[in-house]
Fold this protein.
Amino acid sequence: MLNHLKLKKMKMKIRNIAITGLLVLAFNACDIETVDKSALSPIQALNTAAGVQSALLSAYRIAHEFPMYGQQANLHGDAFADNIEIVNRTGRYEQEWVNGIGVFANRWATAYRGINDTNYVLEYLPQLELAKVPSSTNVTSQQVLDHLRGEALFIRSLYYMELLRVYSYEPGREVNGFTLGVILRDAPTEVVSDADKRERSTNLASYQFVEKDLLEAINLLLPASGIGANWPTALGANTFPFRATKGAAHALISRLYLYWGKYPEADTNATTALTLVPTAAPVAAASYVASWSATTHPESMFELEIRSTDWSGVDGPNNSMNSITTNMVSGSQYVMAASAELRAAHEVGDVRLGLYVNTPATLNKPQSRKWPGEKGAFLENIPVIRRSEMYLIQAESRARQTTNDAGAQTAVNSIRTNRGLAATTSTGSALINLIMNERRVEFAFEGHRFFDLKRLGLDIPKPVAAGVPTLPSSDFRMLQQFPNDQVLLNPSMAQNPGY
Amino acid sequence: MKKILQVKIFSLLMLITSVAWAQDRVVTGKVTSSDDGSGIPGVNVLLKGTDIGSITDVNGNFSVSVSGSGGSLIFSFVGFVTQEVSIGSRSIVDIQMGTDVTQLSEVVVTGYGSQEKRTLTGSISSLKGDVLQNVPLQSVDRGIQGRLAGVQVSAASGQPGGALNVRVRGIGSINASNDPLWIVDGVQLGRFGQSTQGSSNPLGAINPNDIESVEVLKDAASSAIYGAQAANGVILVTTKKGKKGKTKLEVNAQFGQVQPMNLYSMTNGAQFAALKEESFRNAGLSVQTARNTFGDASDPTLQNQDWVDLMFQNGQLGTYDLTMSGGDEKTSFLFSGSYQFQEGQVIQSDWKRGTARLNITHKPNAKLTIGANMSLAYQRTFGSIANGNFINGPFQAAFTAQPTSPAFNSEGGYSLYPTRAPGSHLFGYNIRQGVDEELRLGRTPQTVSSFNLAYEIIPGLTLSGLAGIDASFGSDRNERPGSIPVFAGGQISATNRRTISYNANATLNYSKKFNDIHQISGLVGFEYRKEERGGITASQFTFPNPALRLLSSGATARPAGEFFFENARQGAFGQIKYALKDRYIADFTLRRDGSSRFGANNQYGTFYAGSVAYRITEESFMDGISWLDDLKVRASYGKVGNSEIADYDWFTAYGSPGGNNAGYLGGSTLRLARLGNDLISWETEFQTSFGIDFALFKSRLTGSVEYYNNQTKDLLFDVPLVNDAGVNSVRGNSGEVVNKGFDIELSGVVVDRGSFKWTVTANISTLHNEVVSLPNGQQRIGNTIIVGEPVSFNYLFQFAGINPANGKAMIYDTLGNLSYNGIQRDAAVRGSNIPTYFGGISNGFSYKGINLEVFFQYQGGNQAFNGDLYNLYASGSNANNQLVSQLGRWQNPGDITNVARPFQGGTIDGFDQQFGTFGTTQFMSDASYVRLKQVTLSYNLPNSIISKLKLTKVNVFVQGLNLWTYTKFQGIDPEVVSNNNGTGVSSFGVFPVARQFMGGISIGL
């Protein structure tokens, strides 16, 4: 009997232990909440000036991705026209060279990611408490807020201008009356309904949108002298020319006006821009070639710098400007060299010819050394806006106003005399042609050539080596194709003609 | 001390009770096998209608106390036909038991329990461990390939120890995982790969030789008890346990060779150089340049480097296993250890694994059982770069490398590549040097272990608890020494990661028969599971010496990275089953699951299934039909879920993009990481299944035929957003996919005469996969997903041949006209690489001690696009070495050929000869195949010999894997053709599977 009791007790005990154990297990198991350690909600992430500045830096960072200034935005303008020759057939730029179809597909999505970053900045910046925004002896909290806002407007404009020149005709240069611009967004995509399907604005409305942004940015931004050491240390470094400044905004709007055909405004802003940079003069002839090997191009008014930490494993050999345009580093792609036509566009004595190296090692092609990548570990400096451009904008806008050939000569001669050439005394159309050729030679391998012709409604000559005829300005391929999936997804978005 | 005493007293009581049961007399006997007359241990002997019974000992002997007046004994044992024998007045009852081909008495492992196959109402395919025994397949998923209807297994890579794709009844999801839930002895395995240095497989931690059985739960009726994790099917792996009796020891060893199969034949140096010259000449380029760059075809001293020969090899493989098992009344155990190694058929690729296992069960008393299944495994993979157009991967570069550029220079060192113009091809990567010198190592210790406890509260009611863990701690190293020119200075990166998945459950199982006709069984339970994965990656560049290989020796700091993900789930579940007269059977399952992956609005979901079965042969009116042994019809319907998406998709996240996007000029960056959708929820799959199970002609022919129809709704989609919103997509539940088809399994004894027996086991499954609807009522998402088409397909131009007049490649445009220029509208769906049928046929022949198994595996109805051909089928227009077939290129007007005119660059008049935007059907081919997957010839030494050697078993065998393949596929291996959701390329630089030959011996003590 006693044994039976004991047995029963023991059974109870085991049962109790088992059940208690399982209950404890079940109790502990009730929590299924987890935390994402890698992310915050936007309101948490963007509630400090530093946080908003980080969002702004993301917009800068995207600007040097490969579809943008990391590569394609610097080379498409040359490949589409007559400045390059394909030397290694890797698939890269081959279609561009013969003006194939649909090669800008990446740029659409890339640029709008940058635009969305700036829209977040513009949305959350006004919500910051002014008292908590860092300041320095020379820069108040309000100036910090203003400058950050100005930077966001500047970067947004840069993206929109990059899109407009690729996908739209310039106002007044439409072919067959096709006036559509791009899709304009000025608010961040925070919830799904923000990602509504919009129509393209007109090219004019798009230009006006950018103009308004840049005019505001000019008012908000500090000059180059206002940042650097004056920038609050709590917000880290803000160094000219790697961030937007008042001068850069004047420079960018002068480019906008040039494309728009508003020559007086282009001239004025280019002139103002040159007053707002530490040095105004172009690089001297003797140091021109070397200037492309300098960390920070001496002429930069706004520059992007790609550091070794910005590349993933194979980006350097696959995608760097250096790899695409040279074979100086083993493993480079060396896709393109200067076309014979580009070299022929140089006058005798032009120091810029020194950029082209023609040796058996370069497959006996004139290899450009604008992107020498010899600063080590794929450090690349991409001058997005250079002072030379301001002089040539001054020159062109003055010459096109027909009343100021002398002013145009002064401006273009600032470049010519610093490139080993004699000052010009040409006037009229000869002067204009000379200035346009000066732009071609000065900005080769910087992505301007095709767009300089397009904005003037000119035909696109092709190099003999490409084996394709001149692209008439009326050809539908002057505008690029929108990514097909986007047109399918958004019936409101009109595809460009011909595609 | 007190406890020990209690246990002792308890045991004593048990003994007394047993004695008290003793009745009038004792019946003894021996149970022997009708096959070979040997005693069968472990047979259940039960006096009918009572709880009185016994179990046969090692020699098959039993003794049982029975009442004086007759009665009958029921002999039952897994795998044998249950027999009922009237005792009469006998005191000795010897019987012979025959194997049960129908397996009707077989007990099948099911979710949180087990059931007799006879009364199953759901679809469960089962595979016994003997099929996996001693086959040198590194993981169990490889072992079930072709063996089970409805389960499609294809290699994702031929890397030894590499990953496989397992799909149960089709592809139900587009963006969530399609992998089934693997459960090993109750432990739910984590789903993450373990190494980035080569294909790896979490199932590699389980030695296939340790496996007792594999059960695949294919329909909702069988899997709904796993609720939100069940939509892709559930695979239960049960490892071997020890059995009562003398401790047995078995050792196995085998050794063999791995050989490459079906490699491309490439042009030699002179042929290649000639093609290049022609290509340059046709393009108006300098032939001299071609000669300078690629070599002069007319030069008798022109090099001829056979890169394929240099990169591929015959590898070695070996496996060594030891298993010891045994037990007594209270405790049983199984202990095993193994070591396996396999080299790839490509150089510098191998895999090694050691495993150890201890499975132990102890019964302190009649009511309580405690057990543990513990395993440790260590896998070491030296991986290859594969499955992509990687110029530093041997499966790309061994074929593309120029034969006129030797790998080695005259001093025996590595040449610069290509020798004539270093850097001008493959980034200057000498593939032999790269593969020789690059270290790609993944090392993973892993345990998959569980601990369980069961307590029988009253007869028929058992409370069980289980806790299990799958934990691995991987470390990867990638070392690219500076001696490889493109890695000047050297680059080393390392990743350490931990992957932990643990689960615990408690269940209450009940089973009872009332009045001899009502069988009721059921269970309720609760389960918690958590998965966690985290790790740190770091790399450094610029090392002073390739031999200095610690990260701390590097001069150039690279961004470090850290990742961490976790998710948790919990669920409560219940199941009840009722069988009337073993004839009418109904089963109902319910589970409620919660997951951390979803927002508060949709965190919990309910899943269910109901099923019925009718065993017609139990009806009295069927008694006269002697050829029909068993006939069962069954039907099931249920709702199961799939929550295998990323862990935190439900909320909008702003974070650092990390890695090389983490900063701009030293300042940190922040950006939108994803747009959240707090309404997202499970994908739900509504599964319907009808089946017939049958056994005919005294079970000479058995099988089942099933129809299934699985509708996946609320697909987790990256609903595309307009790119101009700055965000490309948002997760949402929308869209439907259907998978339907038949699963047929047949097994028969073709010949059974004298000692010769021929058995055939075959299965075939059909699959129709179709996207039924998409988010926002769209008809298509770009060119990757289209309503009415399978979830994955080829989207291509229709190749129209080479124009005999000018050698230019042509396609048919939408109007059916010939065109040189392909534009968007001309491309269309051209077949899918999802097979529409698949299966296997196994033939077993046995004669005395000799056994031969011949196993074919097949799949078909799919079209695969071979991306390799972009490189290799280019008529010499690029810098890659070419297939020999390219010598048949177009040369003169009137030439009829499929190989375009060689033209440097491959773009003639602005038209890409390969139509690169979409590709053409020229590179697509029928990927159906039949493969002689396995042939095993084994010989069991006769008892007369082995007993003299004091052994219990000696088996010698030879076997071959992947011996022969029939296919029209124009790539290397039709098996490694992954479904990659419409990127248009089914295979590109894939690691193909290898042929293997082995010989081995298995000895039992």
